[in-house]
Amino acid sequence: MCAEEERAGWVSVHGGHSGEFCHHATDTLEAVLERYAELGFSWVGISEHVPAPAPEFRYPDQVAAGLTPEFLYDRFVRYVARCRELQKALAPRLKVLVAMESESYSGYEKFMKELMLRFRPDYIVGSVHHVSDMGFDYSAEQYRETADAVGGMDAMYCRYFDLQLEMIETLRPSVVGHFDLIRIFDEDYRARMHKPEIAKRITRNLEAVARYDLILDFNLRALYKGGPEPYVSDQILRQAVEMGIALVPGDDSHGVSQVGNFMEKGIGLLRNAGVSSFWPLPRSIDFSVL
Asked: Which of 124, 139, 156, 259 is least buried, going by the fewest C-beta atoms within 10 A?
């Protein structure tokens, strides 16, 4: 791995949403970061969602609250500024990385590159929360509606992994967020991910992650929400380890009470799978190629 490495106990490569800058989180960003410092984290990447560029791409809670794309963009401006302030203030106690979490709806390529050039984040987390421009991870009802609209569960999985590959190839994110999030409300995901058309896409996307030397977010929020295992699932974890892919824990916290949740369990799962605890830092963005 050519990214810088640091020996660390607790780190989060995908963490730190706050109620100050995310409608479905709680607490201030400063309070969230103070909690990371109190728990002895070596470093944390604060990866706030990018703003929706158009009304149809807002999350349902943002729609219900009447948050406009203009408001969301202005709030994101404040997020980056405040995060940079806290990055400096906390430097003696905690290494803070200022990141942003991508979306993958129509037009995201141009929009994301514009955001990256304007805000100059330390890195980006490449995530997929939409399939065919429809959200799927907000609720079980939304999940079923999107699956029905695209031709069923198997088709939704295939479209998700196709879009994820496109995102990886287009953005080359330092971190791929919650790789198998598409299984979020699927009780039969283990069997489904063994289906040939889905399994080959998983392998293909992991090969791209390995080829570009990216980090897989070992996302622990699934455990907080009552899921049986983190993102990635054990079968994908084992495959990624065999391919030499770096995995780093991310608590994906959404408030002070969630900081560090399930970190010990997550690190134990990684170590049992043969993952080193010399956690690599995400690679900085090469802005010259954008």
From this structure: 139
The secondary structure of 21-64 as a DSSP string is T-TTS-S-HHHHHHHHHHTT-SEEEEEEEPPPSSGGGS-HHHHH
Q: Does residue 237 form part of some domain?
A: yes
Q: Is residue 282 part of a domain?
A: no
Kindly report the number of other CB atoms within 10 A of residue 152's CB atom. Answer: 11
Q: Give the E-state strand segments of the chain in sequence order.
A: 11-15, 43-49, 95-101, 123-126, 130-131, 134-135, 175-176, 215-219, 246-250
Give domain status of residue 162, yes or no: yes
Instruction: State how many domains the chain has.
Output: 1
Domain extent, residue 105, equals 11-273
Q: Using the 8-state DSSP alphabet, how is residue 227 labeled?
A: -
Output the pTM of the full model. Answer: 0.94
Structural domain contains residue 280: no
Strand 130-131 relative to strand 134-135, pairing = antiparallel
pLDDT tens-digit map of 233-285:
999 999 999 999 999 999 999 999 999 999 999 999 999 999 998 999 999 98
Strand pairing report for 43-49 and 95-101:
parallel
Which residue type, as a one-letter code, is found at position 14?
H
